[in-house]
Amino acid sequence: MVLPSRVSIVEVGPRDGLQNEPGKIALADKLTLIHQLADAGLTRIEAGAFVNPKWVPQMADSEAVFTGINRRPGVRYSALTPNLKGFERARACGADEVAIFAAASEAFSQKNLNCSIEQSLEKFAEVARAAREHQIPLRGYISCVLGCPYSGRVEPELCRDVAQALLEMGCYEISLGDTIGTGTVASTHALLDNLLADIKADKLAVHMHDTYGQALANIYQSLQMGIATIDTSVAGLGGCPYARGASGNVATEDVLYLLNGLNIAHGVELDKVARAGAAICKTLNKTNPSRAAVALLNQTP
Question: Can you give the residue ranges of the Pyruvate carboxyltransferase domain (predicted)?
Answer without folding.
Answer: 7-274
